[in-house]
Hints:
156 residues, 5-stranded mixed sheet
Amino acid sequence: xxxxxxxxxxxxxxxxxxxxxxDGGDLSLNGIIDLFELPEPDGSAVPNDPVLATVDVNxxxxxxxxxxxxxxxFVTLKTPGIPLDTPPAQKIEWEEGILFQRWIKSFxxxxxxxxxxxxxxxxxxxxxxxxxxxxxxxxxxxxxxxxEAGPAADNT
Length: 156
């Protein structure tokens, strides 16, 4: 977070599946994503396609402490594997009397490898923070083995 009282700061940032804004301005963030599990690759993947899965997410975040005027908002995705294309910075007009603003941005993230996937949020070129989720391979549960000898005998 920023150090001075008039510096921009990130109130929150997270990935979620769905959002809903009520008439009164209440915001609901549903299906918060902090872990995404994939089955272990079986070797049958397309040879020249490094993408294991595609995840559709919403990035919800809120920024406060900004002086009125024109500013630039920049969100970049950082993922393990081949670098992703970064969208251009968005020009923001911050009006007098605004305490904070919130954004919800939708992304389709190609998952190439397990590891930390993040969205870094920069305001006027200053990094404010990031939202992250972990991608990992899920281990298949061990199948129960039947006893070939049958139940153990009670010799008491």
